[in-house]
Batch of 2 targets.
Target 1
Amino acid sequence: MRSVGHPGCGLVPRASWPVGFAIGLLSALCVLPAPAAAQSAAKAEAYTPPRTPEGLPDLEGIWQPRTSGAAYSILPHPGGFFLGAESKTGVVEGGVLPYQPWAAEQVKQLTQHMELDPTGHCHYEGVPHAMYFGFQLFETPKQIAILHENMHAWRIIYMDGSPHPKGYAAWMGDSRGYWEGSTLVVDVADFNDKSVFDMAGHFHSDAMHVVERFIPVDRDTISYQITVEDPKVFTRPWKMGFPLKRAAKDYQMLESGCFEGERDQAHLKEGIATLPPDHYKQ
Amino acid sequence: MPKGSCGIAALATAALACLPAAAQTAAPRTAVGMPDLQGIWQARNAASFDVAEVAEGREIPYRADALEREQKADRVDPVAHCAMAGVPRITYMPFPFQIIQRPGIVVFVYEYLHQHRIVHTEPREHLEGIDFWLGDSVGRWEGDTLAIDVTNLGDKTWLDSARHTHSDALHVVERYTRTGPGTIRYEAAIEDPKTYTRPWKIAMLLHRHAEPGFELMEQECTEGDDGRAIHPYYRPAPKGDPLEFVRTYPKEVSK
């Protein structure tokens, strides 16, 4: 596996061995996300957000993610109708997903059957998929509510130290959180196996476990960083992240209906024709 | 209205609004001193099946032409197609909902079809030229009562599954008053001059879920893509004899 189009690395076509070897080294270096991560961590420590009336770090407000087209694909991807605008980076650390071999085959199937995408049927996106869209965050001492405009989805994060329920499976999973200083950490489990990470069909099983970190960077920025583990589908845990930006002051969330009689998913098949044959290289 | 503004004297409306606050000092308060409606609530009645049950005088004052319009309309309850329930129906759907309060904002999180409303308690004009399934909500405090003025509701939602409908002129004023540790009195004044001969009211108690560890759960509707697939008996009645649908009901279900 190698990274395709990581930031600063550029896309380099096939080359003869010595050049290819050099490029291999270069891209290996580029895969290391250290500088950016270290920088945001340092910034986060330097910034202390104001407090809510109840004395909690104040992350309330309407947040709009900057996702490099993650809704289309969380990996680096070219532009086009289906994959949206080009992203040379994607949002996954290192630009690759550590699929088990059977799962990598399954993704190819799902990519070619976009009409199966559950969000096209107005289902919940799940986590982290729902986080690619704007949301409003409300904090109380025992619960934090995240309300999404898209798909009128919501999530309540329980902050009272209670455990995940047993025998529960949900599109949005079950969220239990705690504070690490000013960082909100949310442990999300109890997923069903139906939601996907993006329209390209990157998927998970019901064994998925997500840990989200909302790291305040400055008044108008949260660094959203997550770790995903799913031993049924991936060979190791992996990370992704993107910044959340505070919406303009007069911005308000409106209603998004979605399910209003849509029965025309079949036309989405046409979108697949716009995919370049080598839209992924893994 | 913030509590502090009661100190400002004289304005007749302000004085009226302050009266109940003074009378009900026992009502719980939020961290910033607002009347506390927070918690998980649920109606315990059959209003979502027939809203006349909670209507004042058990009567809905239909105009004759509206009744006729209703008889000719689609017989499929919109919620059978996974449409959002509308206001006031969302309040008395047989599912719990949670109220969360922040300074200047009251948030309603409904288990039913994962809907939500973010109600700001500051006066503003209603939006123009846009409809929402749950309408456009403008909140205000009348003493300890939260009043929400709701318009822009469109004409697609029903008040219940008994096909009590309304037009796009529907205007609802909801009132939420905490009447005890475990109850909120819910009232909705309903007017729609295209449908009803006069404004009318519904009222009910909302009961608090106080069971330890009670939480809202996820409720998804579109699994199967189409309400008719989930509820075959909701398919539209055949043209002609409207009672044929009722007669064939058990057969339809068994298909």
Target 2
Amino acid sequence: MKARVTVTLKSGILDPQGKAIEGALKSLGISGIASVRQGKVFDIDIEGADHAGAEAALRNAAEKLLANTVIENYRVEISR
Amino acid sequence: MRSALLIFPGINRERDMARALRLVSGREPIMVWHADTALPPGTELVVIPGGFSYGDYLRCGAIAARAPIMDAVRAFAAKGGLVLGVCNGFQIACEAGLLPGVLMRNAQLRFICRDVYLRVERSDTPFTCGYNAGQVIRVPVAHGEGNYIADGETIARLEGEGRVLFRYSSPDGMIDPDWNHNGAMNAIAGIVNERGNVLGLMPHPEDHVEAALGCTDGRALFAGLVDHFRSAA
């Protein structure tokens, strides 16, 4: 199974990298962009076909390592 | 003072730290590999030095914080053992749950490598007993992610419990945004945990312990620790 964990900064956390990207996009003349927040994507291959087990393992992985839950939220998606 | 110095792949300030510990305490620190599961018997101080553990992959300090040796460090700290994390060591201590908050990218997005001034907020801790409260010291910083943040409740607790030991200041001790190089909340440069036995500090006191290097303002942090253990013995 293929899985994806997406980690994003919580709202209210200052994201200077997102701000810099936002400025660069504006300087490229790409219009209509109100704001940019930068995050991380982890594409993960899962052994076996236990959907519920995989979801639990990925949540554990996100809580223990992939995200710092002081400043970040995460989302787990598993494709069937 | 029996110190243990943790070594992770990508750490590069362990020799400077070892030299400072040796010069000030007269005793060679023991280097401890990240994959070890126990600290040397009789360890009094654990030091997590600076550098770029695991290339700062994922988040600064995130992978080192999950290394096997960190379980032993958490157990050591839980029993009241003193832990000093400098620069990447501060980031590792936060990621390991030894200290609250996070060190984010510097507000100006630049790596900063220069001397800064720090106001020592208290002198009644093992880490600061070599200084006077309110004293201003000059030590170098070298980091890209030193911008300390925490939620409002945590900041209020840190301040209310007097757990901010070092703040970025002007040379005469004024707290001013112009002297807060990385944008840290409340100009925080160094904090201790609730029990006061784990210090995280972004600047490098170990770089300013010898007159030949132009400044000895960092020496009193180590000398104070030596005195702390001597008076406890």
